[in-house]
Design goal:
The complex is a heterodimer of chains A (about 475) and B (about 375). Chain A is of the alpha/beta class and about 475 residues long. Chain A has 15 helices and 7 strands. Chain A has 2 domains: about 115-435, Rossmann fold; about 440-475, no CATH class. Chain A has helices spanning about 10-15, 40-50, 55-70, 135-160, 170-180, 195-200, 205-215, 245-260, 280-290, 320-325, 335-355, 380-390, 395-405, 410-435, 450-465; strands at about 185-190, 265-270, 295-300, 305, 305-310, 330-335, 360-365. Chain A is globular and about 85 Å long. Residues about 1-30, about 30-60 and about 65-70 of chain A have low confidence and may be disordered. By secondary structure, chain B is α/β, with parallel strands linked by helices. In chain B, helix 2 (about 45-60) runs parallel beside helix 8, helix 4 runs parallel beside helix 5 (about 130-135) and helix 11 (about 285-295) crosses helix 12. The chains are: A alpha/beta (about 475), B alpha/beta (about 375). The complex binds thiamine diphosphate and magnesium ion. Chain B: Its cofactor is thiamine diphosphate.
Amino acid sequence: MHRVSNYLSLRAVQRCFKIPNNGGEISSGIYFPRQNSVSVGGIRGYAARVAPGAAAVDKAIQEAESSTEGNKATPADAADLAADRPRFPGSRSKWTGKMDFLMPEAYEGIPVYRVMDRRGIIDDPTQDPNLDEATLVKMYQTMTLLNYMDKILYESQRQGRISFYMTHFGEEGTLIGSAAGLDDKDLAYVQYREAGILMWRGFTLDQFMNQCYGNEEDIGKGKQMPVHYGSKELAFVTVSSPLATQMPQAVGSAYAYKRAQNGKVVICYFGDGAASEGDAHAALNFSATLDCPIIFFCRNNGYAISTPTSQQFRGDGIASRGPGYGIPTIRVDGNDTLAIYNVTKAARDLCLTQNRPVLIEAMTYRIGHHSTSDDSSAYRSVDEVKYWDQEDNPISRIRKYMTHKGFWNDEKETQWRDKAKKQVMVAFQKAEKKLRPAPEDLFNDVFDELPWNLRKQRKEMLDAVKSHPEQYPLKEHAKIGSAST
Amino acid sequence: MITKNLISRLRPALVRPTTSIRHASAHFTYVPEVAREEYGPTSKRNLFQSINNAMDVALGSDRTAVIFGEDVAFGGVFRATVNLQEKYGKDRVFNTPLCEQGIVGFGIGVAVAGSTAIAEVQFADYIYPAFDQLVNEAAKYRYRSGNQFNCGALTVRTPYGAVGHGALYHSQSPEAYFAHTAGLKVVIPRGPIQAKGLLLSCIRDKNPCIFFEPKILYRSAVEEVPNGDYEIPLGKAEILRQGTDVTLVGYGTQIHVLKEVADMAQEKLGVSCEVIDVQTISPWDAETVCNSVTKTGRLLVSHEAPITNGFAAEIASYVQKECFLNLEAPVERVCGWDTPFPHSLEPFYMPNKWRCFDAIKRLMSF
Ligand SMILES: Cc1ncc(C[n+]2csc(CCOP(=O)(O)OP(=O)(O)O)c2C)c(N)n1
Ligand SMILES: [Mg+2]
């Protein structure tokens, strides 16, 4: 018997299996670690090809399936060889006399789903989502607008105009492809490098800039560092710096959505580094055991600040964890915006129709520094960065595709670029001139209402300011007393 | 298309602090100190270089000592471990996966097995995933095993405090949570010379220590730091300035505010202040503080952390019991407000010198 036969869930499933999409247009390689109507055939088929006595395995699987609910033991049937199976609670195994350790090296890497190659040419026409011109143009324009905004805000931090910034260079495809594959009303929990989702949903340049300046028109009221956006209206939960904390929260929201039957899913973005936090484990495990309609979207961009993924984990990326949790999982080329779109859309359908989580691992590359506090030349080569910037860039790839289709050309590019840059500059200059919040706003929103101690402290603070007004940057702030409570 | 700006994006940014015109002005002036002569020859070092030098000494003098944490291999995001991996090898200075509970739990295990563990948590704001390992595990290892096991060889270093633009999650001062836990030593230095001696003491102390580093001082505080191996005892306060009218107590960054306040009080009010750096928050040196208050009759305690249940509350209540009959005025606390750490409104949150100065006026006019 082959090693594979006692480890059916991973390689076997993944190698042999293609899921026909419900609508029939896309068949992506999402694989199911737990048997169900789609996956069982694949496993059986594979087992039949590799294993003698496959029929027995087949039967055993069927029995195990029928017995998994509530951990009931398989009814004993001494005559049937396959019936002598482990009866440990929840077991789907059979006995083996072979002392085989599962060696991770024995399994090939999980494949990367893609739709178009680096030249923007479709690999397999059945996978082309055939998006209409307007949608593609909107996707391209959002990707490039994000890119211009990043350039300007990055530079502005360099000039000391804003205190901090993080760019999305290289990840525009993962962001816009996934945003387009969702319903705009789906609840997004993000890490911090996901402004593209907001931009797709209509967060304005003014809103981005106001947040980065922390001025009085920031809808987050200037409470957080730049890039910590949030918008209730756009179903985008406010960013929090502590990593992976959003992940179990996203699962809780998905559970509530399932009970509310509102037809929405939750998407939770996180990085390859954040995936090492304890909260990531809690989230994945909760989502599977509580059957939550959530898409876990890992942006695997190769680094967590200076730490390469080789020092972050030794398994086959983040995707290999999915089956271990019982979560349908797929790995996708993050620089292929169309592939990202396809898998997100398919994952969403799966979440909704089966009430279960899906894990997407988007393979991409962080072209920019981690943030304005980082200099990545201290830990990676300029050539490495150059490769991804020039040879395998999501923006140039989708542009090539659109050019082949006749949806885009150099003239449109020039016009759009001028327009986009102008828009960004105008918004930037506007935000820079605005005042910061009024001093007393410091105490608002700690609780729903100010308790006595905060009211007292607010007065003490204002008295301190009154006693030495020249020591406070009052001119940069809205007038004392103008904050809305 | 993107390429054009690639090079400009990759321009070295390392030595450039993330200052900004509107955010840069520190709320104090750093006045370098001079090391005691007995410590021997010195070199110019800022705070992160001095901490780096302390770890260099620790690894050089203890072959079991290892350093680990997020991004420490390339030198750490604040450069405190720079060059140490080159010098001591990848098995002694290494990156961990991104997981604070893992870092501290791993460090406890290293210490339990008889080696010296120097763990870095990238920001004090991110120490909470490790709260359980610190509070329930590290702090109680010796006690719960009847002193069969201990993890005294564990030191957790972590940057803390306001920097002018760090907001909620890059500014916190969480020392009080840990001072509330018996079995942990909590230490906070105010500058390069002191940091080296205190860190070496923490690393060699027989109890788990948390060492909070004032990150605003990493580059801005520069002193002639002794090159050799020296320790500054834990649990002892240092009187930085003698005075007769008011005792000012603090630690870390806030010491520099208090020293300026002492000058202002002398200049503008003719009031003589005694300035005490407790250095170790837990266990703190109540004797030195009470002796001073017995003499001056007035006490101001100040820290950046929120006032309610901040460590100033402990000092104030202890002193009012011990020195009740010597007190000329109620103890004053000037601290952060009971809010999360703000972003745009940081100047209005800080326990700045003007608030401290007004508190001294209240103490004198009571
Ligand atoms: C709990 C916690 N620990 C540490 C940090 C500091 N930190 C901020 S971003 C980051 C790296 C995250 O890498 P990854 O998840 O791969 O996301 P990427 O930056 O690559 O998008 C670290 C260590 C943090 N914000 N929160
Ligand atoms: Mg990453």
